[in-house]
Amino acid sequence: MEFSTFVFYAFATLLLAGGIGVILSRNPVHAALFLVLAFFSGSGLWMLLEAEFLAISLVLVYVGAVMVLFLFVVMMLDINLDQLREGFWKYFPLGGLVALLMVGELVLSVMTPRFNHLGSNLVPAPEGYSNTRELGMQLYTTYVYPFELASVVLLVAIVAAIALTLRRRKGTKYQNPAEQVRVRREDRVRMVDMKTEGQGEAS
Amino acid sequence: MAELQAFFGAAWPLVWALFRIVLIVLPLLGAVAYLTLAERKVIGAMQVRKGPNRVGPMGFLQPIADALKLMTKEIVVPSDANSFLFVLAPVLIIMPAMAAWAVVPFSPELVLANIDAGLLYIMAITSMGVYGVVVAGWASNSKYAFLGAMRSAAQIVAYEIAMGFALVGVLVMSHSLNLIQIVQQQTGTLGFLQWNFVPLFPLFVVYFISGLAETNRAPFDVAEGESEIVAGFHVEYSGMTFAVFFLAEYANMILISTLTSIMFLGGWLAPFSFLPSGMIWLLLKTSCVLFLFLWSRATFPRYRYDQIMRLGWKVLIPISLTWLLVVALLMQAPIRQLPIINIWFH
Fold first, then answer.
1. What are the extents of the domains in chain A?
2. Topology of the domain comprising A1-86
3. Which of A36, A56, A69 is facing B120, going by the closest CB pair?
4. Rounded to two decimals, what is the model's pTM?
5. Helix (H) or strand (E) holding A112
6. Chain A residues inside the 8 Å CB shell of B160
7. CA distance B216 to B229
8. What is the least distance, in Å, from the CA of B300 to any CA of chain A?
């Protein structure tokens, strides 16, 4: 067996194990950590395909940022497992149907002749080929408008999310750093001329 | 060399790679040990104390005594703690701190892996360090540890954005993600004036401050916050498991300092063009940045939590975004041929 085949199977096994762990673990924190494992193995597979930019950005974005926030939220949830499992059999038929449909779609798309041809006519990249540079060129020249549109959609999503959760509460206490920095001595200290009290007694 | 190669046969590439990894990690661990001593000495001097001076001549054996003490102590796993994750957390935190060194170049030839996406690799690997902190805080089954983990997660996510944008500025300057090319782009007849910290000064400052925050160093050490939450995320750890957290923090400090030197201070380049370049300059620059780390710990009081968030989101990110725009504009053809600007943008 070639070394890269071995690495492929190692990562693929880890990826599947991680995926199964996500749905089987009872503790949501464990599930999130399994998902991190799955992402990481997926990134390893991409690295094997010499798609280093995609592989590293998968780790950077999903493992380094998205999953941290996920974990952050999941850790603070107080989840009652019994309540979650209550309606399992009621929802099972619908869930099973959706799962079957998805499996069917996947099988259909993998079976198409186009999909199978993809692998056979790939030429290996020449020496010194930087796929980061190529991706950048494609994104910012050929596909610049779709790319910018996608980012605008994301921006709208951010604004919407903030607008939905932003509540102005009355009477909250907060500090204004600009004001704090601008403070002068005269605003806080008042010098008073007065006679010394109780002269001669205290000593 | 040839005999060795023959002796190991097909396993030679593996053995050779392992050997070079050891060659990086061992000096790193030595540097970590003596950085702890340096920290205590420097802060001692700043507070007009002597610092450790009992173990060995001038206290030089102090780190070894500390290591021995920590190794012989018992590792306590708290009751009801998730013992697997509890033990896994220190591993999760030390792994990125070591793995990031794979692409750090010490001189044009001296690098473990000279890869094109080096900068991206470093950003990806260092962003994983937060899992160690978060998992440690959660698995400890302690409220203090959990609070520390929460603080750390929010803080690291906030500062990573500013840090990332500062690095985008660097890669705009050098047209490359390769760390060796990033250093070589800073070469010039004007010596240190052509290093990235001059044209990218705001980004340099943002990077250093974010580096302090990312490594949980004072004044951003709310994840530990001794006076509020005892020791934060590692409050339940003892003995060697605690030592691993300590090691990772210092290894990360050295990493950030080295990266600052490589990306903003010209790496192994000499400050004046008539001096020969070499690894010694990188080590010197790294030591200077490390001194800044220690200096800020001795000088600044700890930030309040909301002030940290404000600084990250409302100050550092807008500054780095603005300067990124300025750099991008200066890179454009008509302006970059003007007399002074063409020193840096060519």
1. 1-86, 88-122, 128-165
2. Four Helix Bundle (Hemerythrin (Met), subunit A) (1.20.120)
3. A56
4. 0.84
5. none
6. 64-65
7. 14
8. 17
